[in-house]
Amino acid sequence: MITLERAPALFIHGAWTAAGGGTEAVINPATEQVIGHAAIAGPADVEAAVASARHAFDKGPWPRMNAEERASILSAMLEIFERRGDEIRALITAEAGSVQPMTRTMQFATGIDHARYYIELARRPAITPLPVELVDTPDGRRMLGAGVKVREPVGVCLAITPFNVPFMLNVTKCFAALATGNAVILKPSPLTPFEAFVVAEAAEEAGLPPGILNVVNGGIETGEALTRDPRIDLVTFTGSDRVGAAIQAQAAPTLKRCVLELGGKSALIVRADGDLKAAATSALASLTLHAGQACAAFTRLLVHESVRAEFVSMLTAMFRAVSIGDPADPKSRMGPLIRGAQRDRVESMVDRAVRDGVKLVTGGRRPTGLSRGFYYEPTLFDGVDNQSPIAREEIFGPVGVVIGFESDEQAIDIANDSDFGLSGGIYSADVGRAFEMALQLRTGKVQLNGGSGKMSSHQPFGGIKRSGYGRELGEEGLQEFTYVKSIAFHGG
Ligand code: NAD
Asked: What residue ranges of the chain are covered by domains with CATH 3.40.309.10?
């Protein structure tokens, strides 16, 4: 099923090379079985990858091609992904442990959508004329001053990705950078590295020039060496706030541009007039579809006191009805956590909350009848104090907390009282009021009554506070990978 003959090697300068760090087993979190071995970079591999990308950018054809020429190679890569779709989806399921509805959409199709969007956006002219001005010169003459601004690639971009959405995030970052003419070094999570090698295979088959995409798998050491290297111009990182802060520090001495897409503790506000069933369904999807391993998941459920009890009983029933099991089974609606250590972490955070006297409504344990796999039941706490650790820390597991509120103002205050600022949601029959409230939320994104139905490529995504800075998607997402040069001239 999974044909990753090349993954035990790294992809550097257009060739598959044996890795100095050997190989590491990759485990299916549902079965705990080894699904393959992935190469781990050693210091010499990091050096080779950076030198290759630097040379490919400084001397190679890619940055000098026009957008049309680049688009034809990138579109060929997309066709390869689509041709290999069944294989890639099976790989994502086995590696990341996401259930079929999530694998089909967010994990795979969304990545293709974003890539296609970036290719189109990058076709726009890179040169924009600026207004002509009549200028008085110091020697008393008058002249016409004019200028243009030119968008140019930043240079060598380092993409570091997390384990949870490996194909979509790798493809989104790579295509934004490549479409604008950059060279890319992709360092995936060693927990889910294979999708990055699939991107490398597509690059090789489509004829991307050597060095324009290098894939270097590895852990902290590899990431640290790359982020410190002065030959890299930009780091685009998606992961935890803790690692985001480390990367910012590692990149600081060389003044690299950083785009940091970090964690969240997003609030879903359910007003008294909101559609309770739709809101509970949205919370259910957030907390179970990828076992809560989603950065923008609604983990704080802020519910008006008049409907709180009804909401809690509705969501509890939904949680208890979720079919937990192997994501390869199309009937499963919730899969495992990525590793045993992650489940231990979730478990200890839940146990601490129970010890602290927070009211556990459902879950809080491993499901019975599943002897293998890192499963954990969807878990709900009610009547939670927003100051308690379970309401403040990112858990990255299937754990939600319900917090009551009496007024819209109080709901906004609670929602904003968080170290994070990634996403948020509001359910209300009064869309105008919901929009007013959305304007007051200190987050990078807000979904009203379920949002627009998908993660649209047009909608910039990213956070503030400990959720990071910079944007992915939308025009802003593409611009992160370019810089603006002004060229001034005059008509004499
Ligand atoms: P993580 O932060 O542990 O690791 C992310 C990546 O950073 C991995 O590739 C890892 O090998 C690498 N890394 C670790 N230490 C490093 C260092 N010192 N220097 C350079 N690289 C280093 O995250 P994770 O556990 O893989 O993923 C979960 C986290 O990602 C959650 O916090 C989640 O909210 C976040 N996330 C955010 C978004 C978003 O768009 N905002 C999307 C998905 C996931």
From this structure: 266-456
Catalytic, 261? Answer yes
For 398, residues 6+ apart whose C-beta sits below 8 A from its C-beta are: 287, 288, 291, 292, 334, 346, 363, 376, 377, 378, 379
Pocket probe for ligand 1: among 26, 98, 243, the residue whose CB has the most ligand atoms within 8 Å is 243
Q: Which CATH class is domain 266-456?
A: alpha beta
Return the CATH architecture of domain 3-262+470-489.
3-Layer(aba) Sandwich (3.40)
226-282 pLDDT, tens digit each: 999 999 999 999 999 999 999 999 999 999 999 999 999 999 999 999 999 999 999
Residue nearest to atom 13 of ligand 1 (CA): 220
Tell me if 295 CB under 6 Å of ligand 1.
yes
The answer to whether the Cα torsion of 112, 118, 123, 124 is positive or negative is positive
Residues with Cβ within 8 Å of residue 421, at least 6 apart in sequence = 264, 442, 443, 444, 463, 464, 465, 466, 467
* Residue of minimum CA distance from atom 9 in ligand 1: 189
Where along the chain do the CATH 3.40.605.10 domains lie? 3-262+470-489
Q: Is the pLDDT of residue 34 over 50?
A: yes
**Can you give the pLDDT at residue 405?**
98
Name the residue with the closest Cα to ligand 1, atom 6: 162
146 by DSSP, 3-state: which?
Answer: strand
pLDDT digits (tens, 9 = 90+) for 197-211: 999 999 999 999 999
CA of 181 from ligand 1 middle (Å) equals 25
One of 258, 295, 394, 480 is an active-site residue; which one?
295
Give the nearest ligand 1 atom to 162 CA: 26
What b/e readout covers 173-209, taking b as 16+ CB neighbours within 10 angstroms? bbbbbbbbbbbbbbbbbbbbbbbbbbbbbbbbebebb
Torsion of CA 163, 164, 170, 171, to 10 degrees: 160
Q: What phi and psi, each to the nearest 5 degrees, are found at residue 352?
A: -65, -40
Does the active-site annotation cover 295? yes
Q: Could you tell me what percentage of the chain is helix, strand and coil, using 3-state DSSP and rounding each to the nearest 5?
A: 40, 25, 35
**Ligand 1 touching residue 247 (CB < 6 A):** yes
